[in-house]
């Protein structure tokens, strides 16, 4: 399986003038990027502004992207530089974390950072969405729950999950899909049920 | 919606779809708002599982980016980087050009040499076999004595020199230097044939 083939196919479409493909990339990485930028700025709204700027810079620089590295790695560097520049230009001190400990953004000390961001305005994930997704995950059969958690939380590939769960790769793919479908069904009800956030997702 | 399509979307989200299938689905994803919304919810599910609690999952970030990009020109097709598989072909092009230029230059030099034989070769030939004086007396003119070349012969030589130099512009510096030095050698050899006839006759005798 070609790593990053999914992103690369979207990137190639954007490079050929298809802006809609860039939407898909933003949707996929917006949360990761905001979370990444929040290492540098405390305010989630400011982090979103910086992430937005990073996405726009990435779009403009996309003709120079050759696919030598993964798209997210490239985007990650743009976001880091944008965040650093924003911090310098606004004369603010970055939140001090040990970035060198794990420079790949996902597994730094989340608990320590949570205290900084969980201000009233920092509690950005609505309870409805979070509780709905968590409830849906709890309701999943064990094999589906394990598969989706290994994928999303641990970042394992299908092949690694197959080895861990002692089943074929095709079964892993099916389990993850069914898990997502079950969760998405509940999540869609929340968005379509009057909370009025469906249009905000895109 | 087609369950197989949704299954492919899930696999694509995880970078676990075959590249050829990715190409097809990316095309559809970029245009299909239903698929895009589902794709966005897959991202939310992942963020919740990873407990990205400092991030607003209902933030309209994608919509804001999209609004800004609406004013941007679409990236032109010609700006897209070329397929990396074609890079080696491009790499050989200068070499192929240099090889053609070198070939033309070599043919030109060989042709020049046939027009103006080296005097050394003539002398070597004269040192063998029958004494040159006998031949010279039989034919009236010694074969080691170059006949006076008509002025018209110099014209194609000059044209060829220009031709060779022009083609050598496409070759590498080393090849160009070799070519020019070879050409100069042939020119000086040609000049050597115009030595005073008395010297040549003295050798012949």
Would you spell out the secondary-structure blueprint of this structure?
The complex is a heterodimer of chains A (202) and B (205).
Chain A: H1 5-15, H2 19-37, H3 44-61, H4 71-89, H5 110-117, H6 127-138, H7 142-152, H8 158-165, H9 169-195, H10 198-201
Helix pairs in contact in A: 1-2, 2-3, 2-4, 3-4, 6-9, 7-9, 8-9
Chain B: H1 3-13, H2 19-29, H3 33-49, H4 61-70, H5 87-115, H6 119-127, H7 132-139, H8 154-168, H9 173-192, H10 197-204
Overview of this protein structure:
The complex is a heterodimer of chains A (202) and B (205). With 202 residues, chain A is an all-alpha fold. Chain A is built from 10 helices and no strands. In chain A, helix 2 packs across helix 4 (71-89) and helix 7 packs across helix 9 (169-195). The radius of gyration of chain A is 18 Å and the shape is globular. Mean pLDDT of chain A is 82; it is low at 98-119 and 196-202. Chain B has 205 residues and is an all-alpha fold. Chain B has 10 helices and no strands. In chain B, helix 5 (87-115) packs antiparallel against helix 8. The N and C termini of chain B lie far apart (105 Å).
Helices of chain B, by number, come to: 10
> Helix segment count of chain A?
10
Helix content of chain B: 55-70%
Strand content of chain B: under 5%
Q: Pair with the most extensive interface?
A: A-B, 88 and 64 residues
* Arithmetic mean pLDDT of chain B: 69
Helix share, percent of chain A: 55-70%
Based on CA atoms alone, the radius of gyration of chain B comes out at: 38 Å
Provide a compact summary of the structure:
Chain A has helices at residues 5-15, 19-37, 44-61, 71-89, 110-117, 127-138, 142-152, 158-165, 169-195, 198-201. Chain A has 202 residues and is mostly helical. The radius of gyration of chain A is 18 Å and the shape is globular.
